Amino acid sequence: xxxxxxxxxxxxxxxxxxxxxxxxxxxxxxxxxxxxxxxxxxxxxxxxxxxxxxxxxxxxxxxxxxxxxxxxxxxxxxxxxxxxxxxxxxxxxxxxxxxxxxxxxxxxxxxxxxxxxxxxxxxxxxxxxxxxxxxxxxxxxxxxxxxxxxxxxxxxxxxxxxxxxxxxxxxxxxxxxxxxxxxxxxxxxxxxxxxxxx
Length: 198
Hints:
alpha/beta, 6-stranded parallel sheet, 7 helices, disordered N terminus
């Protein structure tokens, strides 16, 4: 289920534009497993990605999967064994997202894109100070990654229209919480104006 476009304005208390020279776009878990949820907001994801590429902002994708029971952690218990297994079609990134061969893919096995991935080191080595978060699920992997980015010292921008989850209520709850304490909210229109002034 996609976000309700424009509904985030009621939570939007701080405004700032990303700095293309120090930003990356994180596209979280746009995999076949999540395709039913992700497809309605594909136009927003592709627009966000295109805008960032035009502004020379690097695009990094994450891919969530499990290689063995050793990396299941609490997710196995929480989701009753319904996990994305590495090597299955469900673990593949959706071809519609337009990933380029040069785009980095971060492999992860929990909600956070930072946990056990060396993403923080990769970003800091390249002088990255800001992350723009997009993808699925708004309230799980996207929100956890955004919160972790904030506490690790990155400025966070969170897309209201290029994220999606299981219900509008969960989506809006994340926007409310992140806008209060962790992230600047953006959408495609705001990104376009902030990056290009039109």
